[in-house]
Amino acid sequence: MVLQLQSACSVLQWQSAYDMQVVKPGTNGGVSALGTAAGLAGGVLIGCCYCVFETWVAGVPHVTALGCRAVAIGAAAGMLGNLVDSVLGATLQYVTHLAYTLTQTLTEWQAIR
């Protein structure tokens, strides 16, 4: 599913992570290649921060294999977290919105009675 989400999105087109329909920017569950790349870049930045910490603060004279793995793990976690957030936004937040709308409708109907 993750590969399908990435390949189906363009930089300027937002699509729903739930049903892949085109949505407006800012919609819960919207996915774009630009946003996915930002999640990847954020993860890489966190991994690089670990490398800097390991090198300067811990006194390791060079970047180790653990530091390189930290960058890769950070990149994967950033992208995966970004996509999971979009899928949850497309499903759970939509269901919550429907429940809220139903509650408001019932409340208004009882107020009229």
Number of strands: 3
Q: State the domain count.
A: 1
Ends distance:
48 Å
Give helix % range.
Answer: over 70%
Q: Describe it for me?
A:
With 113 residues, the protein is mostly helical. The protein has one domain. The protein contains three helices and three strands; from the N terminus they run αβββαα. It has helices at 2-8, 33-57, 65-112; strands at 14-16, 22-23, 30-31. A three-stranded antiparallel sheet has the order 2-1-3. Strand 1 and strand 2 form a beta hairpin. Helix 2 (33-57) packs across helix 3 (65-112). The longest helix has 48 residues, at 65-112. The termini are far apart.
How are the SSEs ordered, and which strands pair?
Layout: H1 2-8, E1 14-16, E2 22-23, E3 30-31, H2 33-57, H3 65-112
Antiparallel strand pairs: 1-2, 1-3
Structure in a nutshell:
By secondary structure, this protein is mainly α. Helices cover 71% and strands 6% of the residues.
